[in-house]
Amino acid sequence: MRRSNIKNPEKSDFNQIKDSKHISQVWKSIETNIPIYLDKVVKMNDEFAGLKANPYFKVQSSSPDIRKHLTEIFEEGLKKYEKEELKYKKFFAEESMNEFEDEDDPKAFKSALSTKVPVILKARNSQRPLMREWQEKFVISKPADVYAIFFNLIDFMNEYIQETDPSEFGKLNDIGELEKLYTLNEDDDYNVPGVIGMGIKSAVLFHLDPKYFLAANKNTLYGFHFLSNCDSFGLPSGSNEFIMINDLHEDSNRRHHTNMLIDQNYWYPYDLFILYGLRTFRKLKELCAIYKYTLSDENRFVHVNSFMSKIWELKIDVINTMTGGDQEDAR
Question: What are the DSSP calls for 125-177, one per residue?
Fold first, then answer.
């Protein structure tokens, strides 16, 4: 997508990306590429992969133990998730939130949020030039607004989980069935413009319950970008929907003065994002089952994020070129 097109009704990609025909085209590409990238990820994980590529080096076995590598890949992702998970669950625990509510001190809440919630802490400490604007906006944001957003978000999460059966949720396959999730993008009760967007909100939800919520972070959005062949599928912007090209600002320090900043699409609709996330998990689960490795529904989106983080590692050189090297480690 292009920043310049967002508020132009005639050129905005948002008008088309939820069209059923468009979704079918995008998913066909993603579905085709999932086994291709899973194969690449497994080979990347194989400690002999580099040596096997050398024609002068011979190994006894020409095929890696697929199940072993799948176990390593997804268990590693689960361990990374669990290290962060506890911090979110402790901060947003009902008892903890009740204490903040009893104190009714938004400044104290915002201060604690900025030091104890990993996604906020990392954003505040980021050295990426693209994060400077966010850091400035966070500092001047009203504590009462930040306070209200997160209480509303936790209420939304609890209500959604209560009314949604996890096994039925795992089977959802139509954008209309996920419409309520789009509320998180659009409703003012869940937004502090330029400060608390879907990246932060989805990270919190993801670490509180990965059965229902996937983090819309650079892993997943760049992952979908590559899985969809970086194609525009005929969108007005002529660009892929999972990335955002900031054509309102050109980097004047680069050759020819025409390079534009590129990042993940922070404004991607969460309902559509979850649809692709659910379909991706089901495809991964199907492929892993071939090798007698089972992905759990309980951690469905942890597994998706683990897969996407490996795609990030595979494509890091391309990503660095796209972003001018303005990236940090995958999440």
Answer: H---GGGHHHHHHHHHS-HHHHHHHHHHHHHHHHHHHHHS-HHHHTT---GGG
Q: Is the pLDDT of residue 93 over 80?
A: yes
Whole-angstrom Cα Rg for the chain:
21
CA neighbours within 13 Å on the CB side: how many for 229? 13
DSSP 73-116: HHHHHHHHHHHHHHHHHHHTSHHHHHHHHHHT-HHHHHHHHHHH
Q: How far apart are CA 319 and CA 230, in angstroms?
A: 12
Residue-wise pLDDT tens digits, 162-204: 999 999 999 999 999 999 999 999 999 999 999 999 999 999 9
For the beta carbon of residue 39, count every other beta carbon within 10 angstroms. 12
Whole-number Å distance between alpha carbons of 192 and 120 = 14
| Residues in CB range of 245: below 8 A, 6 or more apart | 1, 2, 3, 237, 239, 260, 261, 262
**pTM, two decimal places:** 0.89
d(CA 169, CA 304) in angstroms, rounded, equals 16
Question: What is the spatial distance between Cα 329 and Cα 104, in angstroms, rounded to a whole number?
Answer: 36
The three-point CA angle 167-76-35 to 5° equals 65
DSSP H stretches of helix in the chain: 20-45, 49-52, 66-91, 94-103, 106-116, 118-125, 132-140, 143-163, 166-169, 183-186, 198-208, 218-227, 270-290, 300-314, 316-323
Q: Which of 24, 18, 67 is nearest to 46 (CA)?
A: 67
